[in-house]
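lol so apparently i was supposed to do this last week
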Amino acid sequence: MRGLARARSSGKSAAGGPVSDAAPVTALLRLLPTASARLTGGLAALVLLDAALAPALTVAIGALAGRLPAAAGAGLDSAAGRGVLTAFGVLALIYLANVLMDPVIAGTSTRLARRLAATVSRMTMRGTLRPAGQAPLDGPRVADLLMLAQGRGTGQLPVGLAVTALPRLIAVRLAGVSAAGLLLLFAWWAPIPLVVAWVVMGRRQDRATRRAADSHAGTTTELRRAEYLRSLALEGAAAKEIRVFGLGEWLVEHFTRAWLTGTRELAGRRRADVGDLACLAGLIAAHALVLVPLTVAAARGDLSVARTTICLQAVLGTASLGWLGDLQWTITRAAAAAPAARRLAELGRGAGGSGLSPLPVGSGLSAGPVKAPALGGAPAHAIRFEAVRFRYPDRHAPTLDRLDLTVPAGSSLALVGDNGAGKTTVIKLLARLYDPAAGRITTDGTDLRALPPDSWRRHIAVVFQDFLRYELSARDNIRFGAVDAAPDRHALASAARRAGADAVLDGLPDGWDTPLSRRFTGGTDISGGQWQRIALARALYAVEHGARILVLDEPTAHLDIRAEAELYEQFLDLTRGLTTILVSHRFATVRLADRICFLDGGRVAEEGTHDELLAAGGRYARSFSLQAATLTGEAHA
Ligand SMILES: Nc1ncnc2c1ncn2[C@@H]1O[C@H](COP(=O)(O)OP(=O)(O)OP(=O)(O)O)[C@@H](O)[C@H]1O
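anyway here it is w/ adenosine-5'-triphosphate bound
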């Protein structure tokens, strides 16, 4: 939230783009019609009606009280008595309407709250998914916004609660306004001191609430750490490691520490100071200023019983213009998701928002969509990295530094190098998750930045090192390789067979429909190697639908020796006609490639076939011998 506060003062979104500056409640009010214009309109009408009933009730009580003295001795069948009965009847009707309004308003606001929660999630998801590149999503500021938009800030309440509380707040405020108006029955000046005193007091306390809300949200980096540690303990993914390494107590302790640090400012209660006491004194003085002359006028008979009763109720009613404690607190804390969602919804909008750079001026190519290269967009000749320089935003040193690399179309290239050499980064740049800071990447001479990222990506099928294990059906896991295409049973079966995933599917209780997670009914967990085959099948399904560049980042990492050997046997079949990039530390895998590049210091240090590189006796040859010696040693042991 500190990021938000800074962004507010600079007129920029914490998420990067320019957005309107909106306090939580204002942002919430703007979102409501988006959630449902019909329900918002209906709710506004109900709230206005409800607000009108409050002064009507006050007046009806006054009218009844005013008729009671005349009817006291005359009996109910007298004209005065009938007047009392009529006044009572009207009062009862207004009261009944007042009582009935509550459930109607509650029902309408609950329906609107449901819609709003969906709208906030939709805006957040769309905004987060919009940037074509990954850069706009990196960093703690977006992480803070995401947490707030999901209602996971500390002490934050579900956004729907703001909608259910808001009508009550508005009704109470309007009742305060009408109470102030009724005081005009006594004197034109009577509302002024009470309204001023309550409004000043209310604003003061409201500011203090906002400060507390802002300060607690400002610590979200620490609170996110706490949240992360808690989720590690409570969610299944880390259960094995936590037990094996005995991390349980460490997690509990560090969670507690992060939580307490993060919430310290929130926990610190505000003490009453001189300003508070002055406000209180002003409030007492304002009441005295009105009540004393009101009582005197009533005692002198200058004010009728009915008017006196109405005015006394009205004096008490003006308190609704002041601080409404829990109600305001609830709304402020629940509405915090609204500005965060609005800011996230702006992600990726405007120049540079995609996180990808436009084509440099003078490059000779238009920045708009260009005619796709031959073979439906896949390279017919080569993909080239030309003097590519790239640095991650939070890093000082470049990860790639004047990297020159050629991948001839239809051939396979292996990237090797030490941990952190930049192999995966090369893949990310090729998939345009990031763009180079300098240099360019071309496909048959066309700069990738001249191609719409989405259509370029259709030509690429990737099995990332940390590929996703979707907790969905096996079919969906594979179909996601070409999600826009109509599901094609033959293509699915062919991709599964080529990836060696058919045996995995045969073993599933419900075949293709089995959810690959025990968290879902009928679901099951599968092994790391089996997941790798499913991920490979996903990439091959993309190939079945036209992708011509296949990227395999550590394709054999989870495979057993037999499965690895099988992959080698099938390698030519799997990659035939494709431009293939292999990233691996396993030289047995690497040597299958037509050419091998050894990355070091952000550029290509050695390049050639396996035999050429061995003959050169450089880093590749030394790494290969080391691995071979280790494996031989293991075999002899
Ligand atoms: N999102 C990121 N933000 C900041 N730095 C990153 C990010 N991703 C990678 N890096 C850094 O960039 C460098 C290259 O990482 P990369 O993942 O490309 O290496 P790699 O050669 O694939 O490594 P490995 O063999 O360990 O998989 C590393 O120093 C890494 O810490």
